[in-house]
Each structure stands twice: as structure tokens, then as C-alpha cells.
Amino acid sequence: MKLQNQQILDVNKKILEEHNDNFEFLANKLTKNGYDVNAILSKLSEFQVAIPSWALGAGGTRFGRFGFYGEPTTLEQKIEDVGILHALTQTAGAVSLHIPWDVPQDYNAVSELASSLDIKFDAVNSNTFQDQKDAKESYKYGSLSNTSQAVREQAIQHNIDVIKIGEKLGSKALTVWLADGSSFPGQNNFQTAFQNTQDSLKTIYKDIPEDWKMLIEYKPYEPNFYSTVIQDWGASLMLANECGDKAYTLVDLGHHLPNSNIEQIVSILSLKGKLGGFHFNDSKYGDDDLTVGSIKPYALFLIFNELVYGMANNPQNPDLAWMIDASHNIKDPLEDLIQSLEAIQEAFARALLVDQAALKAAQLDNDVVKCQEILQGAYRTDVRPLIEKARLNRGGAISPIKAYRELDVRNYLIKERGRNTVATGL
Ligand code: AOS
Ligand code: ZN
Ligand code: ZN
């Protein structure tokens, strides 16, 4: 299924007047306060977030999985779903593939389909956390960190294969997330596991093309519950530094112990030029992979405030790979992703409203109250008319959720694909 521009325009018509009123009110207010509204709009329009191929079906937990009708089963269908998201939101212009779940059968067909929907291929993700059918070696006791050289070699080779697949699609980054670690004290030697991982990553790094990045994701626990080899940003940064200039740390919002100051991590990595990518989601307890902005929207805003500061002040840090890494147990995955994209745009727009010069002056004056007023003033602004306008300017929907429901997208997908479909993925 492909959404036509006219369908979106027709739905927009019904709420266009209301949108115009709201936009005019906000734009006037911002202009009076010295903001360049058009500059903000073009930054919002340019901001594109990759959708992971595994987020388009219902995820599930270890207790069960409740399927969602009309889920995509093939890679082509997954790309079509991203196309729907992009047509509505104009901010999902990329897909991030997981290998081996989404190995293209026909590269030309897949590339053509993606470009017809204005979708690029973002980072490719390797998988050494599951044993694949007919695999010679098992990852039960780790992959890149394993004490067995044969296992490490198999995992290294898999990552190299993933790079080759990504090259054929125009990807520019490899994301490595390892489940490696231990479930009980004494099970493995921390130093050996870390050293093996470092050596393995360095071997993979040799195959990273010149214009690529290697993104190293960290996570404190799960599926191993005593230790994880790449447990935090420090471990990731050490490994990235050992590998070289093309290796970076990837921050997944759910991969922190409760109350970690993620915005500070983001800020310092950016200062060091080592912040490479982002997995957006939200979390209450752990790696909950909930809808972005559904639990801690203020924290998300503070993170974006550091990202905006970094993008303006840290030329040593490259452009980031933005991706949503969420999983859906009870919502329609496409609706959930629309909500996530909306929350990301909202946090970004609010961060763009932070008066950086005034904040700096207040910081130099040690005017703590004023600093907080500046941040919270931006946060309390209802920026939705700005986001709507940025979408409209590119031909998207004023309200993507409304349009998705009014156009009855899910029912069309069910008619096309059937009810009992199961997407590959987590
Ligand atoms: C796992 O917890 C990580 O967040 C990964 O980024 C991701 O969910 C996984 O690699 C899916 O392939
Ligand atoms: Zn992740
Ligand atoms: Zn995760």
C-alpha cells in the first residue's frame, strides 16, 4: 500500500483553518521575541529519523506475544510501512535493517522501492545475540568476547558480511550491539572478555569502508543479568578510541541505570567528537523500549537541548545517525511510531527555542533561577503548530495519527496482507 499525496491533502483540508490560526498565533509570538521562525521550520523539516525494520511488527515479551493484524512479513512490506510513516510525518526518511532478519533477496528491487518512497538505508545492525539456523558455533556464552576463537571468528565474519550487505544498499554505518556478558559472578573474567571484544572489534574495524562509521552500543544488563561486556558509555568510548576515528559511541536512551544523567553523557561525548548515533525510546525501569516521550518528556527535552548545543558548537562531532529503537506490545506499531516521531520533533523544536545566548549569559552570572527559567520557558511552549507546519511544508499530514485513522490504513494493510501475519524481529 502506498499513500497518495492527494489523500493526505484531503484529510488536511478539514483541519487546515484551525492549524493556520494556531500557527499564526505562535509564529507572531515567537517573531516578536526575536526568533527566526522560518529557520526553525527548515531545521525541523530536515530532521530525519530512521525506523528500525524490527519495530514494524508487534514485539512481545518473554511471556507471550499478541500479534497485530496486517504486520509486514517481507522486507518489501516493511519498507512500504516506513513509506507510509514517511508520507504522513515527513520525518521518517530512512530505514535501519537488521541482519539476518532482513537480508534483501533482490537488491535492485529493494533499492528502487525505497527510493520511490524517498527512503534511505541508515545503519545496518548485526546480530550475534541469537544462534542462526545451521550455524557452526553457538553464542550462548558470548560472541565477540567468547573465550573460543572459533566463535569469535564466526561473529567477526558475520559483522563483515553485514557491512557488505549495507554497502550494496548505500548504508554508511554498522551498529554493533552485543548481548555478551555473564549471568553470575565468576562466570567469566572481566578483563579477558573485554580484551577479546576489543580485539574482535578492531578486526571488524579493518573492514569498515572509508566513508562509514562503526557505532558501538552499550547496555548495562539484559539478557545477561550480572555483567555486560560493553556496560556503559565509558566502555564503549574506550573501545571506539581503540578502534579508530571511524568508531563512535551509540547512545540508546533505555540503556542506562535509573536516573542516569543521559544529557550529560550526550554532551561530553559530543565535546569529544565521539557521539555517533542515537536510539530513541523511553523507559520507566530498564530497557523498556516504550514510545519516545511517553514517560520522561522533560528528560528528552534536556537531551535534545544538549544535541542542539552540540550540533551548533561541536564541529569535531560528525552528523548523527538518529534511530528509533522501540518495540510494541499492545499498540498498532505504526501508530506508536508516529507518536514517537512526534515526540522527537517536539523535543527538538523546544530545544531550538532555548535562547543559547541568554542561557550563557545567565550561566556566567551564576543566575541559577534565570537558567532554569530559560530552559523551562522553552519547554513549556506548545510547539505543535510549528511541527505541523514543518510537515505541511513537505506535503505531510497536519495530524499524522488522525490521517492514519481516517484513511483506514491498518484495514487496507490487513486486506492486502491478511490477518495472521507475523513480522520477523524481537
Ligand atoms: C538491544 O537491547 C539494543 O537496543 C539493540 O539496539 C537492538 O534492539 C537490537 O540490536 C535489535 O537488533
Ligand atoms: Zn538499541
Ligand atoms: Zn535495547
Task: Look up the CATH topology.
Answer: TIM Barrel
**Residues in helix, %:** 40-55%
- Alpha carbon gap, first and last residue: 24 Å
Number of domains: 1
Strand order, sheet with most strands: 4-5-7-9-10-11
Bound compounds, please? D-allose, zinc ion
Query: Can you write the helix and strand succession as a string?
Result: HHEHEHEEHEEHEEHEHEHEHHHHHH
Mean pLDDT: 96
CATH class reads Alpha Beta
CATH superfamily: Divalent-metal-dependent TIM barrel enzymes
Instruction: Compute the CA-based radius of gyration.
Output: 22 Å
InterPro entries: L-rhamnose_isomerase (IPR050337), Xyl_isomerase-like_sf (IPR036237)
GO molecular function: isomerase activity; metal ion binding
Protein name: L-rhamnose isomerase / sugar isomerase
Keywords: Isomerase, Manganese, Metal-binding
Descriptive tags:
about 425 residues; alpha/beta; TIM Barrel; three-stranded parallel sheet; globular; binds D-allose; binds zinc ion; metal ion binding; L-rhamnose_isomerase; Xyl_isomerase-like_sf
Question: What does this protein look like?
Answer:
The protein has helices spanning 5-32, 37-46, 75-89, 107-116, 149-169, 190-205, 233-243, 262-271, 297-313, 333-352, 356-364, 368-379, 384-393, 400-406, 409-417; strands at residues 50-52, 94-96, 120-121, 124-125, 173-176, 181-182, 213-217, 227-228, 247-252, 275-280, 321-324. 47% of the residues are buried. It contains 15 helices and 11 strands. The two termini are 24 Å apart. The protein has one domain (48-354): TIM Barrel (Alpha-Beta Barrel). The site of one zinc ion (ZN) has 5 residues, from loops. GO terms for molecular function: isomerase activity; metal ion binding. This is L-rhamnose isomerase / sugar isomerase. InterPro entries: L-rhamnose_isomerase, Xyl_isomerase-like_sf. Keywords: Isomerase, Manganese, Metal-binding.
